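Re: your question from the hallway

Yes, I did run it. Sequences:
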Amino acid sequence: MVQKGSGGLAPSPLLPMPGLYVHLPFCRRKCGYCDFASLAGRDELIDPYLRALKAEAGRSKAVFAKPDTLYIGGGTPSLLGPERLQTLFSLIETGFGPIKDLREASFEANPESLTPEKAALLKTAGIGRVSLGLQASQDRLLDRLGRLASFEDFLKAFRHLRLSGFDNINIDLMTGLPEQSPEDFMTSLKEIMALEPEHISFYALEVHEGTPFAAQGVREAPEAAAEMFALALPVLEAGGFRHYEISNFARPGRESLHNLNYWDQGDYLGLGSAAASHSGGVRRANTKDPELYIRTAAGPGGPALEYSETLTPARRRAEKIMLGLRKTGGIELPEDIFIEFKERIDGLSARGLLEVSGRRIRIKREALYVSNVVFREFV
Ligand code: SF4
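Structure:
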């Protein structure tokens, strides 16, 4: 890309792009609740997919500056064997520079596929943060979810990470599961807190159409999930975790920088099937279909898109508030936005849902679990 300069043609500046997300859609088996862009049992697509990613990374390199943070998610990125992981890291580095130089580089892993060899390889590659999917510490619940790993597998994977030198590990849990009591959830929480991870996330079960859970008639349990959430907060805080986003808890300084950029409405680039990007008020996502992605990524127009939309200024302002309110510290609004939304802010404050201090607004702690009620006001 070139632009006219005073002395002739000069390279145009690369667009800043703080966050880079790379999606690996492959899984060994679909979990019962899974509504993510993932597919199981199609390992023959992995190599063509990596070639497609390389083409997309190469094309993006000419447009975007080096990112600050990297997040490799899925699917199950840890499903890739050591050689393919090397291929993945080298295509990222060819496009965006050394992984070890980034402010943060995260990698999602599932316990059953995280071997000692892979843990060491991640560390050598410059990955600094690993997010391990556990969901619950009771094997009967893991079976019910269709997870492949037992709690013992998880403990082994966690040990491999620590032995490889990882000092920034997130563990994912779930609430509101079928046959999960509040006691089960608190046992899971206490068992993982005993391992002293740096970060814990937990999400309430959502049952989406088209998933095995929907076919089985599994129901969401928002009240049970809310009870588990309320029980967990004081325990996490007493354990030194700061609640910094609706679903996320971190030891000081261990917040996810990559996700904070999303909540700050920063720009990000997504590579791979289903990966979304946001730049300068335009949001787009690649096709969710990995095979279509593979067929189109290296073509002249780049990967097929699932959607592309230009956000209106009004929509961007509303989204800025909704994203900012996800953080427990809330958001300091510029004066014009504060004035524009003042009536709704006052209404939510009068209902006891929002705390207002100057132009900083935040959802009251006790209302965080019903944050959707607040978000609806800004849609
Ligand atoms: S491991 Fe994650 S992405 Fe893969 S099927 Fe299970 S929930 Fe879905």
